[in-house]
Write a structure and sequence with these properties.
By secondary structure, the chain is an alpha/beta fold. The protein has two domains: 218 residues, Carbamate kinase (3-Layer(aba) Sandwich); 142 residues, VC0802-like (2-Layer Sandwich), CATH 3.30.2130. 39% of the residues lie in helices and 23% in strands. Strands 3-4-2-1-7-9-10-8 form an eight-stranded mixed β-sheet, with helices on both faces. The protein has a six-stranded antiparallel β-sheet with strand order 12-13-11-14-16-15. Bound molecules: adenosine-5'-diphosphate, aspartic acid and magnesium ion. Magnesium ion binds next to loops.
Length: 439
């Protein structure tokens, strides 16, 4: 069994859905995991914001505009009139459901239910299309097997048990289709795996069925050596280890959801990234083995907040760091970088939801300074050759860029540097020139 996930652009138009049908129509046993059509989740987020703000008239017109896009897709995708009718009814029922929230109280639960409609729509459209073509397929709902626990972590046991029950309906020649991103929480409410979460769904499904391979199909030929949104001339990397890929995903390479590598790594399932537009391209393979040495890729993670705690008394006395870390633990806020000096500790976080509460607690331990709009530049590779460091080439490249924090040696795969987000593009480009173009 293989699990193949197709992202927003891969299902973004009627033509792409037609192409997708050709791509998945093979004898291989597979589960196809789909994202919402490109732009839909963003549109649903905007609709949810309008509903929160009680701007119901604006919300209704946005809902109607999005609904019309789907009728256009229906017109272009199907040829058989009964299938068109059935698809139109399906689209209408999803949008009636969304529209109903304009009359009720709108909270985070309703928001999640609204966001889930994107993946429910794309999978149903694709399922009808395969039916029209006569390609045997079965649609199973992720809401019947994908679940997170009270800490927001995937409930692997539940997922495995319930997915295997759902898969019992499958006939041997059928392609299984399901939604990425969406799940239920521990109360049975509709929830999700956070933005970009379909990659995570695919990895979790891969583990649950002990897949031979998890494939992430997207709009680029695998993981590149720098962020193509900010740097020109980036290149695809043929192979990365799980740890290298996980560092890149965690530190901002948008191509993979930050947590998506962990489940596959634990179960030792190879992950392959492929380009839907150019399926013959090799893409990137991610596996257990660590191959090659040196710097391989650079990524950047935005919206980082740095918190500096200055304390005259006993900063580095034993037990002090524990007190600091406990405060972050209480507020379930994970820390990305830490640096210490005799008089201060600096810590970065990317989730600032409980920033005020954290600062209030930290002020009991010392003076606290907070700076927002920072970015972590993460340089990833295999720094195994201990006779040769990489600090000089990295820092001499960055001599024009003010660096706020440095983390070197935390692992053999990562050097992290904190800069103001204003300097991010410059830093990515200079590093690209100096680390990849002069060799
Ligand atoms: P999907 O909708 O298929 O999940 P995403 O937009 O989430 O696609 O991810 C693919 C995009 O990630 C690419 O189009 C590219 O702009 C961006 N990206 C950022 N960093 C990298 C990188 N290091 N390698 C490849 N793509 C990257
Ligand atoms: N549709 C969701 C999003 O846009 C999940 C995904 O695309 O992976 O975030
Ligand atoms: Mg994505």
């Amino acid at each position: 069994m293989i699990v193949c996930k197709f992202g927003g652009t891969s299902v973004g138009t009627a033509d792409r859905l037609k192409e997708l049908a050709r791509l998945v129509n093979s004898d291989e046993d597979k589960i196809v995991v789909l994202s919402a059509m490109a732009g839909t989740t963003n549109a649903l987020v905007e609709i949810a914001e309008l509903l929160y703000d009680k701007q119901n008239d604006k919300a209704i017109s946005s809902i109607q505009a999005l609904e019309q896009n789907y009728y256009r897709v229906v017109e272009e995708l199907y040829t058989v009139s009964e299938v068109k009718e059935k698809a139109k009814e399906m689209v209408e029922s999803h949008f009636n459901y969304i529209q109903a929230f304009t009359e009720d109280l709108f909270t985070i639960h309703e928001e999640k239910a609204v966001l889930a409609q994107g993946e429910l729509l794309s999978t149903a459209l694709f399922h009808y299309y395969l039916e029209e073509l006569g390609v045997p397929s079965i649609l199973i709902s992720a809401l019947d097997f994908m679940r997170i626990d009270k800490d927001g972590e995937p409930d692997s046991y539940y997922i495995k048990e319930n997915l295997s029950r759902e898969l019992k309906q499958k006939k041997s020649n059928e392609i299984v289709i399901t939604q990425g991103f969406i799940c239920r929480n521990t109360f049975g409410e509709i929830d999700n795996l956070k933005r970009g979460g379909s990659d995570y769904s695919a990895s979790l499904i891969g583990v649950a069925v002990a897949a031979e391979e998890v494939q992430i199909w997207t709009d680029i030929d695998g993981i590149h050596n720098n962020d193509p949104r900010y740097v020109e001339g980036t290149q695809s990397i043929a192979y990365l280890s799980y740890d290298e890929a996980a560092e890149l995903a965690y530190f901002g390479a948008k191509i993979l959801h930050p947590a998506s590598i962990q489940p596959s790594k634990k179960a030792k399932i190879p992950v392959r990234l492929k380009n839907t537009m150019e399926p013959q391209d090799e893409g990137t393979l991610i596996g257990l083995e660590i191959k090659g040495a040196g710097i391989k890729s650079i990524a950047a993670k935005d919206s980082i907040t740095v918190i500096k705690i200055k304390s005259g008394r006993m900063l580095l006395a034993h037990g002090f760091m524990r007190k600091i870390f406990e405060i972050f633990e209480v507020y379930k806020t994970s820390i990305d970088m830490v640096t210490t000096s005799e008089v201060a500790v600096s810590i970065t976080i990317d989730d600032a939801q409980y920033l005020d509460e954290i600062v209030e607690e930290l002020e009991k331990l010392g003076n606290v300074e907070v700076d927002k709009q920072m970015s972590i530049i993460c340089i990833v590779g295999n720094f195994i050759d201990e006779s040769r460091g990489h600090a000089l080439e990295i820092f001499s490249a960055l001599k024009e860029v003010p660096i706020r924090m440095i983390s070197y040696g935390g692992s053999r795969h990562n050097v992290s540097i904190l800069v103001e987000t204003n300097y991010k593009k410059q830093a990515l480009n200079i590093l690209n020139e100096n680390l990849f173009c002069n060799v």
